[in-house]
Amino acid sequence: MSQPFWSGVFPAITTQLTKGELPDLEATARHAEVLIRSGVSGLVFLGSLGENQPLLPAEKRRVIEAMVKAVNGRVKVLSGVAESSTAEAARYTRDVEKLGVDGVMLMPAMLYKGDPRETMAHFRTVARASGLPIMIYNNPVSYGNDLTPEMFARLADEKKFVALKESSGDVRRITDLHNTVGDRYALFTGVDNLALEASVLGIDGWVAGSGIAFPAENQYFWELTRRGEWDRAREIYRWFTPLLHLDVSPKFVQYIKLAVQEAGLGREFVRAPRRPLMGAERQRILQVIHTGLTNRPKLPRRR
What we know:
It is a single chain. The protein is an alpha/beta fold. The chain has a single domain (8-294), classed as Aldolase class I (TIM Barrel, Alpha-Beta Barrel). The chain contains twelve helices and eight strands. α9 packs antiparallel against α10 and α11 (252-262) packs across α12 (279-294). The radius of gyration is 18 Å and the shape is globular. 46% of the residues are buried.
């Protein structure tokens, strides 16, 4: 059975940067504060949206140290683990355990498309490196390694694997996972524009992306799905979906950081090789964002 705290919304937060592309710890902490106040259950720092790979090893550790301190135990803190080698992934996991994270979101080794034997060996080796609980992140569209339900069944004997972030883009996987592994893992969706569909099929949580620019609406929508208020959930989802589409593009970091900026929660600065949006593409994304801001649904006051 999965650990109790592995449920609810765990937004993947951006790493705010200065204009000179250095981590802005104060700005990141301010955004985290807004997300905490919205009612989230946890925060995922240094995921793909957090620009894990372009940051230097020392920078990543500084970000995690500062964010653990800023959150101060109010919600769970996870760090993404997206290293290119198994040894470095194990080293990083040990380091963030010492810095006080509550768990990690573990991706396959970057840059190499391993076969199932190699991919599972990577996960098992990293699991042995620390005492932290692990959310396994499956995103074959972006990272080329597909962890199938059958592979998760074979990994089920490792108790540190407690949750799955399913981002294959095939919502049928939710049912396949239920049928193959039952309730062995907490099941999260990681594809924003499948959040309603995945909720209907049965999930425990959501690693949200676009919703970090609209935290109150994101949390309200999630709570509607928990209560089974599907008519209202569909209404919110139809407003939200053009914004949720921003999460499923090669430029999702630029798109979502721009949304965060336009919502007044941060800045759009990214680290090279990414560059800020320009020209017609920028205007197209701004139109989506501004339409969403203009048509924000009226929410009930939180108690």
